[in-house]
């Protein structure tokens, strides 16, 4: 009974690297990819094309800061304002080192803020560590719904 990892990333290069890094970590969790903030909110709230997805929250949300349609900070704010989504761990995974972005992310309730390393091997290690911690080691809050992948 593994919950999926929600990856919200619009940059094709960063998306490819993140998926490679997650696969190298050998996690069994499904990785659900959405390309913008509006799609992320539709997935989380089971709306639009995601209305029929299984009930339950992801194990973790890996959220880019700079996204089309709805930016990462707005997505984070919406998550923290939605009772069923509040307990979901959110990791801001971004290239921004701007102090304002870090401060605002934590003020809105992000669980971790990770700046994407430039070096490929460092990037792979960072993503693998994130995936293992949030999807395997972290104990979700009591009452958190588990995802059951259909057979």
Number of helices: 5
Sheet with the most strands?
5 strands, parallel
The tally of strands reads 5
**Structural Rg:** 14 Å
Mean pLDDT: 85
Strand content range: 5-15%
Side by side, the strands of the main sheet go 2-1-3-4-5
Low-confidence stretches: 143-151
Order of helices and strands: EHEHEHEHEH
**Given the helix and strand composition, which structural class is it?**
alpha/beta
Shape category: globular
Helix content: 25-40%
End-to-end separation in angstroms reads 12 Å
List the helices and strands and how they pair.
Elements: E1 5-8, H1 12-24, E2 31-34, H2 37-44, E3 60-63, H3 72-80, E4 90-94, H4 99-107, E5 112-115, H5 120-137
Parallel strand pairs: 1-2, 1-3, 3-4, 4-5
Helix pairs in contact: 1-5, 2-3
Q: What's the short story on this structure?
A:
The chain is of the alpha/beta class. Helix content is 38%, strand content 14%.
Q: Which descriptors would you attach to this protein?
A:
151 residues, alpha/beta, five-stranded parallel beta sheet
How would you characterize the overall build of this protein?
This protein has helices spanning 12-24, 37-44, 72-80, 99-107, 120-137; strands spanning 5-8, 31-34, 60-63, 90-94, 112-115. 38% of the residues lie in helices and 14% in strands. The N and C termini lie close together (12 Å). Helix 1 (12-24) packs across helix 5 (120-137) and helix 2 (37-44) packs parallel to helix 3. It has 151 residues and is of the alpha/beta class.
């Amino acid at each position: 009974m593994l919950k999926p990892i929600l990856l919200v990333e619009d940059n094709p290069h960063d998306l490819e690297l993140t998926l490679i890094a997650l696969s190298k970590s050998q996690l069994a969790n499904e990785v659900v990819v959405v390309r913008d903030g509006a799609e992320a909110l539709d997935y989380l709230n089971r709306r639009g094309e995601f209305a029929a997805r299984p009930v339950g929250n992801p194990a973790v949300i890996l959220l880019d800061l700079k996204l089309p349609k709805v930016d990462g900070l707005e997505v984070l704010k919406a998550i923290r304002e939605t009772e069923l989504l509040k307990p979901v761990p959110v990791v801001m995974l971004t290239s921004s080192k701007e102090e304002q972005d870090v401060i605002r992310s934590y003020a809105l309730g992000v669980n971790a803020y990770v700046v994407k390393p430039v070096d490929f091997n460092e990037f792979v290690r960072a993503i693998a560590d994130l995936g293992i911690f949030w999807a395997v080691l972290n104990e979700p809050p009591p009452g958190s719904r588990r995802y059951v992948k259909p057979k």
